[in-house]
Amino acid sequence: MIVFDLICANRHTFEAWFKDSKAFDGLRRKGRVECPTCGDSKVEKALMAPNISTSKTQAQAAKESAMVAGAKQMLARMQKHVEENCEYVGPGFAEEARKIHYGETKKRDIYGEATKTEVVELSEEGVDFTAIPWTQPTDS
Predict the structure, then answer these.
(1) 85-133 residue pLDDT tens
(2) CA 68 to CA 104: how far, in whole Å?
(3) What is the distance between the alpha carbons of residues 17 and 69, in angstroms, rounded to a whole number?
């Protein structure tokens, strides 16, 4: 296994593990290496210092790092899908979700923000919604 520091076209940097350099090159050419922050598949190797693994604990850490990177990629794809297919209603999410639930406005897919109190109240009222972790762009 080998770890690379990678950078996307939007200048987000991240780490990813691969079987070897050839595996990275093949996956990158197919567009299967994506930035966990923005989902961009235009990824290149970034400048990095060598890291020589000498213990089994580093192998476990590498596996866990790869799992985290995969989860971040999945969240970035989910976020992109929501942004492209749902209406953003901002901090008025709870109010708009109630209007839809009670038939006061047309049914449509929405997303936005809600306070913890609003989330509890929506749940108690039986309003159907799902909370997802929202990733923020980083300048790293």
Answers:
(1) 999 999 999 999 999 999 999 999 999 999 999 999 999 999 999 888 8
(2) 41
(3) 9
